[in-house]
């Protein structure tokens, strides 16, 4: 358990750094990390979530990135160098999926350092709707809810990881 | 000089293809000469049927992974330079790709300058 706790801390640090780095590098957007809280289950925060599965020798889990529609449009518009008004629903879904892919890829490198073979990522799944749920989520396992902020607008990243 | 250069961008993300194409245009590549594929299978078919000077290849895609597409393209005897552009940042994966015949490797997230530099390096070797 102590091993898992120390890996969680490494993972949270890697993910918070990756989230800030991905948005700064790809969308020229500064992100503030406001902290992490343990939750008993997944919480359907935001209007749009991109979810990715991560599996490897020492465990498996999921990472979910959730935004309000407005913040998703803003960030995707900066990715593309367009105005937020031009961003379509498909753009938002695709863009948020790519963001969770890049953030998870970075987290995966951190996890793989303690593993013989690299971890693998699933393709991202997009879920729309406020208060949504994820039926195929890891259950009976705590979630870490990380809160970030861009220009006063919050967004969340949720992580659940089960060690074998 | 780069107006006649043909490039194939293989990535399942429409947004990422648009970002990459925007940077390729900044390098001076004509957008009419940029082909796109949305998965590894389509990437292999396009690469083998429509000769290009450079292929940019994602790793995690539906139907066929980019690493398998790279191997399939090389197995067919195609020597087009392939730049892997991927979130797969583990050294082991970089080595696997290079051993399979990747010309160079760029880890996402990347800034425009990183991609421009890698593309120009590969195209300069060609000329």
Question: What is this structure's SSE topology?
Answer:
The complex is a heterodimer of chains A (164) and B (127).
Chain A: H1 2-27, E1 32-39, E2 48-56, E3 59-67, H2 69-80, H3 89-112, E4 120-121, E5 125-128, E6 143-150, E7 153-163
Helix pairs in contact in A: 1-3, 2-3
Chain B: E1 7-10, H1 14-27, E2 34-37, H2 40-49, E3 54-57, H3 66-75, E4 82-86, H4 91-99, E5 104-107, H5 112-126
Features:
heterodimer, A: 164 residues, alpha+beta, Chemotaxis protein chec, 3 helices, globular, B: 127 residues, alpha/beta, Rossmann fold, 5-stranded parallel beta sheet
Quick summary of this structure?
Chain A is an alpha+beta fold. Chain A is 38% helix and 31% strand. In chain A, strand 6 and strand 7 form a beta hairpin.
**How many DSSP helices of chain A?**
3
Query: What's the SSE pattern of chain A?
Result: HEEEHHEEEE
Q: Runs of chain A with pLDDT <50, length 5+?
A: none
Kindly name the structural category of chain B: alpha/beta
Classify the secondary structure makeup of chain A into a structural class: alpha+beta
Strand order of the largest sheet of chain B: 2-1-3-4-5
What are the secondary-structure elements of chain B, in order, as H or E? EHEHEHEHEH
The second-level CATH architecture of chain A is: 3-Layer(aba) Sandwich
Question: CATH superfamily of chain B, please?
Answer: Response regulator
What is the CATH C level class of chain B, in words?
Alpha Beta
């Amino acid at each position: 358990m102590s091993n898992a706790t120390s890996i969680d801390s490494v993972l949270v640090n890697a993910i918070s750094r990756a989230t800030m780095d991905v948005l700064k590098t790809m969308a020229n957007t500064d992100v503030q990390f406001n902290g992490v809280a343990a939750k008993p289950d997944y919480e359907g925060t935001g209007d749009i979530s991109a979810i990715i599965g991560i599996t490897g020798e020492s465990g498996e889990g999921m990472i979910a990135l959730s935004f309000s529609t407005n913040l998703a449009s803003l960030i995707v518009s900066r990715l593309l160098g367009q105005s937020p008004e031009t961003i379509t629903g498909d753009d938002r879904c695709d863009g948020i999926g790519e963001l969770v892919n890049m953030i998870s890829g970075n987290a995966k490198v951190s996890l793989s350092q303690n593993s013989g073979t690299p971890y693998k990522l699933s393709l991202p799944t997009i879920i729309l709707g406020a208060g949504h749920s994820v039926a195929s989520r890891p259950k009976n396992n705590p979630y870490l809810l990380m809160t970030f902020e861009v220009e006063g607008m919050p967004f969340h990243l949720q992580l659940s990881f089960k060690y074998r | 000089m780069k107006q006649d250069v043909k490039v194939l961008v293989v990535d399942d993300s429409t947004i990422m293809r648009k970002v990459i194409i925007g940077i390729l245009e900044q390098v001076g590549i004509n957008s009419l000469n940029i082909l796109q594929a949305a998965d590894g299978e389509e990437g292999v078919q396009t690469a083998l049927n429509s000769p290009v000077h450079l292929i940019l290849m994602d790793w995690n895609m539906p139907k066929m992974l980019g690493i398998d597409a790279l191997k399939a393209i090389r197995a067919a005897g195609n020597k087009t330079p392939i730049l892997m552009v991927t979130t797969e940042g583990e050294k082991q994966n970089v080595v696997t790709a290079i051993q399979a015949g990747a010309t160079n490797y760029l880890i996402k997230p990347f800034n425009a300058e990183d991609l421009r530099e890698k593309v120009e390096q590969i195209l300069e070797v060609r000329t």
